[in-house]
DNA sequence: CATCGGTGGTGCAAAATCGATCCGGCTGGC
DNA sequence: GCCAGCCGGATCGATTTTGCACCACCGATG
């Protein structure tokens, strides 16, 4: 009889492409993965991978096994989801995933309020760059900005929130200096992988052709606060920052709509219901800030 | 993350009804099962079993989990089946399941011939009382006696063999003694759990009302050879035994039809094809013996 | 009422597994 | 052309898991 847990290692290697990558995902030493794969292949009596110097690649047999291994994983996830969905106690873990910017510049105070309100709920904010997969139980609730509602995952329950607008911002000091006849050039501050959005205009100010690139949203904000130039920001970031003002003559642009996503069986959990009700009220209160109506255009 | 192999232990306990029964099935110490179930419950954060003095019984949560655990098992079995089905080498394991009587009194010489013909095939004859489940990969080939072809499992591939007839037998010596005016009473020899089949008649001989019961087919044959009385036997047993004769005036009765069963993906294996072709030829040659036509009625 | 076969549970020693580390080989970028 | 960063593989000591023996308990049975 094969060890079912070995199939989990098999999946990790098949996806990671190498033993070491798989070990990183699972969180074990790579030699463990090596041994478990060898054990699985021995018990099945067939090679699942070609052992190349560049990594492990699936053989034809491995490709066929992959399909069933995915089925096992799906059943395992459903199993966990079903057990978790029965959990009606208030104490326990609640994992929320959302974009880092939303966490840092808008919702962290609300998360703190919620945590104070329910001290027995253990909270985990999964706020990395990638989208966490609710079906895989990487998180219980997701707060997402969705541009086209047709792109919402069909298997998830979605609760609509306010629309999200963005604008073009610069530092208050830089605007004053520019009005006084700026000595320094004004540059576009962009995130490398994104570039300048097509909707953004410079408004009344003039920028040099030489952009200033950052890899990270926080670095971008820090740069614009330093008066390096102008950049596009969500209104809830730019309008809430006393050091920043909208670039005169620039327009707002709708980024998308906020959605609260939960998964079927997990949604029935008391913790999840408490959180979604709490945070959707807070989001509704933030609607003017999010849509850019909190301040009057100057 | 849960250990997927723990789900296998969960299934064994759910089916066995107790930790010790599950340990017996899996082939480990019962304390191991105890610890793995405790680990699973801890990681899931829910009780799967009520710990009664009489054993482990599923909780409501456990019932819900059982369904998904079965799915995982089904995927695991399909996975093994698919890998095994790719195996086109002649060397390796071949497991055959069939009724003990068929093994001992008819086919063992043929199995021996096959093993001599293919010395690199490791053979295993699974000839316990219960039907082995091909879908669970407990065996690769099954030889079954089927009374109604509608009862054949639909998911298996079935190859029809000869019909199987039975009759009423007694020892040659007893018949002679009875014809000479028997001093001893002639008894019905029956297997306890079966009783006297409704189709069987005593023929010309007279039996006492007191039956002789055995638990086991081999004991039944030994008893009739000892001249204890008359009994129903398959023709291939009774006709092939020089010590036995059919009871004068008794009739034959069709027991059913022999079928060679294999499972879809496993059927494509070279070993399985070699075996089914070999054994179906032998079965065809045995047709007169199996249908009771090998000897003329006296 | 004692016994016997079944249950779950618990220390402790042995065995199997795992993690850290080192090694050789490959590859791509400077 | 060299070096850094991957890769798989092997080794060895530490850690975890397992098996074994035992216990208490419960129910049926003689």
Can you characterise this structure?
Chains A, B: It holds the Pfam family HTH_1. Chains A, B: Belongs to the LysR transcriptional regulatory family. Chains A, B: Residues 2-59 form the HTH lysR-type domain. Chains A, B: GO terms for molecular function: DNA-binding transcription factor activity; sequence-specific DNA binding. Chains A, B: It comes from Phyllobacterium leguminum. The structure is a homodimer of 298-residue chains. By secondary structure, chain A is of the alpha/beta class. The first copy, chain A, folds into 3 domains: 4-86, Winged helix-like DNA-binding domain superfamily/Winged helix DNA-binding domain (Arc Repressor Mutant, subunit A, Orthogonal Bundle), CATH 1.10.10; 94-162 and 255-285, D-Maltodextrin-Binding Protein, domain 2; 165-254, Periplasmic binding protein-like II (D-Maltodextrin-Binding Protein, domain 2, 3-Layer(aba) Sandwich). Helices cover 43% and strands 24% of the residues of chain A. Chain A has 11 helices and 11 strands. The first copy, chain A, has helices at 4-16, 19-26, 30-44, 60-86, 100-117, 172-179, 217-225, 235-238, 264-267, 270-285, 287-291; strands spanning 49-52, 55-58, 92-98, 121-126, 141-146, 156-171, 187-191, 212-214, 229-234, 244-246, 253-263. In chain A, the strands form 2 sheets. In chain A, strands 3, 4, 5, 6, 7, 8, 9, 10 and 11 form a 9-stranded mixed beta sheet that branches. In chain A, strands 1-2 form a two-stranded antiparallel ribbon. In chain A, helix 5 links the parallel strand 3 and strand 4. In chain A, helix 1 packs across helix 2 (19-26), helix 1 (4-16) crosses helix 3 and helix 2 (19-26) crosses helix 3 (30-44). The longest helix of chain A is centred in the N-terminal third of the chain and has 27 residues, at 60-86. The model of chain A has no long low-confidence stretch (mean pLDDT 88). The A-B interface holds A 1-5, 7-8, 44-46, 60-61, 64-65, 68-69, 71-72, 75-76, 78-80, 82-84, 86-87, 92 and B 1-5, 7-8, 26, 44-46, 60-61, 64-65, 68-69, 71-72, 75-76, 78-80, 82-84, 86-87, 92. The structure holds a DNA duplex (30 and 30 nucleotides).
């Amino acid at each position: 009889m094969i060890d079912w847990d070995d199939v989990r290692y098999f999946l990790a290697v098949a996806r990671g492409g190498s033993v070491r990558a798989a070990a990183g995902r699972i969180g074990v030493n790579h030699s463990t993965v090596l041994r478990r794969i060898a054990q699985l292949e021995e018990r099945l009596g067939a090679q699942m991978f070609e052992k190349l110097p560049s990594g492990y690649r699936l053989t034809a047999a491995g490709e066929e096994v992959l399909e069933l291994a995915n089925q096992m994983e799906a059943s395992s996830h459903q199993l966990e989801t079903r057990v978790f969905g029965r959990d009606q106690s208030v104490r326990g873990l609640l994992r929320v995933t959302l974009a880092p910017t939303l966490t840092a510049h808008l919702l962290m105070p609300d998360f703190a309020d919620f945590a104070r309100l329910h001290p027995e709920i253990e909270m985990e904010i999964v706020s990395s760059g990638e989208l966490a997969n609710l079906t895989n139980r990487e998180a219980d609730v997701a707060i997402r900005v969705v541009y086209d509602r047709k792109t919402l995952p069909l298997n998830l329950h979605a609760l609509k929130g306010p629309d999200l607008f963005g604008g073009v911002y610069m530092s208050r000091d830089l605007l004053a200096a520019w009005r006084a006849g700026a000595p320094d050039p004004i540059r576009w501050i962009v995130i490398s992988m994104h570039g300048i959005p097509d909707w953004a205009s410079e408004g009344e100010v003039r920028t040099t052709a030489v952009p200033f690139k950052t890899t990270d949203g926080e670095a971008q904000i820090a740069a614009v606060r330093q008066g390096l130039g102008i950049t596009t920001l969500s209104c809830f970031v730019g309008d809430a920052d006393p050091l920043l003002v909208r670039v005169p003559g620039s327009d707002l642009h709708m980024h998308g709509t906020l959605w609260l996503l939960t998964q079927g069986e997990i949604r029935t959990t008391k913790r999840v219901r408490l959180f979604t009700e709490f945070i959707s009220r807070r989001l509704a209160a933030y609607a003017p800030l999010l849509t850019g109506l909190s301040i009057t255009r100057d």
